[in-house]
Amino acid sequence: MFRYANPAVFMGLSGALLPWVSGAAVIALAAGLWLGFHVPPDYQQGMTVTIMFVHVPAAIVAELAYGAIAFASLFSLVWRHPLADTAARAAAPLGAVFTALGLITGSLWGRPMWGAYWVWDARLTSFLLLLFLYLGYMALWNAIEDEMRAARAAAILALVGAVNLPIIKFSVDWWNTLHQGESIVSGQIAPIFLWPLLTMALGYTLLFAALWMVRIRTEIVNRRTRSLMQRAG
Amino acid sequence: MNSFLAMGGYGAFIWPAYGVSLLALVAVTWQSVAAWRAAKKKLAELERDNP
After folding, report:
1. Looking at chain A, which residue has its C-alpha nearest residue B8?
2. Which chain B residues are within 8 Å of A104, Cβ to Cβ?
3. Could you give the CA distance from residue A222 to residue A109 in angstroms, rounded to a whole number?
């Protein structure tokens, strides 16, 4: 773990991985789209079931990205490794984009199925909180000038906010929600809908991984630039 | 083709959902790559001017 957290090693490793990860992301997304538009209408939801193929992957990656930030924050607080801060900070704007996509596609699915773009049920509310956590996390980074102090404060916020992840996950079991319950792991989803969904989820995850690497690499280069400028005076 | 676009009457919800997803993912990819290129360019200039 520490070996890969060395910036020079990370640059080499991520540089070698990036073409493969982004290529695989493009293939998975293309295959997922093709599969997704060849499904029959669902017996209850009609063709709105196809919104699931962009809604669920966005929501999965939104939570995955927050989990990654929380993990990197723990790493940063305990071992004080600077690359952990860089990794956590780089994931936040991506997570916010995927969270916003989960909310928007969800409301476009909610209107025809529930008759409302928005309801204050536990799943939707906790997921909206996730967006605010991302925005607050990014604002905190920008608000504190000293980078070490900003990293510490942001890491603590990220870890406190991680409580929301299981709340989102189990909200549909703990409360009576209009949002439907879990259907992938429990096997209730029909295979014809499951395959496009899994393929799209893989594509979204790979895309997130590729963009996350690009953003960490960008910050490593920017850090080198800043230290060179300080040395040059 | 028209029946494909209509999506069983739900086209008005399905196409915006796909449109906004495509737009956002393309935009964030473009922004990430542009920032990477700008960072590399700046470092290269600095290293060239201060050998």
Report:
1. A47
2. 17, 20
3. 41
For B2-25, the pLDDT digits (tens) are: 888 888 889 999 999 999 999 999
Which tens digits make up the pLDDT trace of A54-86? 999 999 999 999 999 999 999 999 988 879 999
Whether the model pTM is above 0.90? yes
Pick from A228, A218, A80, A219: nearest CA to A155: A80
Cβ–Cβ under 8 Å, residues A108 and A47: no
Joined together, the tokens standing for residue A151 give 């990293």
Cβ–Cβ under 8 Å, residues A48 and A109: yes
Q: Is the dihedral of CA A185, A191, A197, A198 positive or negative?
A: positive
Q: Extract the tokens encoding A224.
A: 């080198």
Residue of B2, B3, B10, B15 to mutate when probing chain A, most A C-beta within 10 A: B10
Residue type, A72: A
